[in-house]
Design a protein that fits this description.
The protein is built from nine helices and nine strands. By secondary structure, it is an alpha/beta fold. Helix 1 links the parallel strand 1 and strand 2.
Length: 203
Amino acid sequence: MIPAYNEERSIGDVVRTLRQHSSIDEVIVVSDGSTDGTAEQARQAGAYVVELPENRGKGAALRTGAAISQGNVLLFLDADLIGLTSQHIDQLLEAVMSRESDMTVGVFDRGRGSTDLAQALAPTLSGQRVVRKEVLDQVVGLEAAGYGAEVALTRHMKRHRYRITEVTLPEMTHHTKEEKRGLMKGFAARMRMYWEIVKYLAD
């Protein structure tokens, strides 16, 4: 499942990689109030697309996608990934599918310095995860968490002593907000993301 806001540049490649994987039964993209061609690019690549009429935040997009999924195991990916491969998907799925873990969290490695460092310092913010649907359904307030969605999920897992496994994702990274929106708008979007995370943590 992929939450996406104005990601027409990269969403198609992410969807196509998922569609080619034998263990993926459905690919759901939640276009979170996008105003560009995100929804159309995702459809052309073979995803089932849900279009939210306005931007409701990452937590709401995750909850929306999970609610309509028919699967018992949910794979969440960011829409702006660069270098996603079938091997990365295998690595994320393995521990949960074998029931050795209740959630996997993917951490970039050898993608590029800035994104590697950010995830090494704060792996709880990674959007690359696999979790059982029954566990996700237990997370209270996810739809209101915004960019704090991953923090909410990790906090819930730790509080209830679920098993979490960090998975290294070699040679994968993502487009930064500054690259996608320009320096000033990208920086503003980054600050908004951090604010939502801090606000969630403070609640």
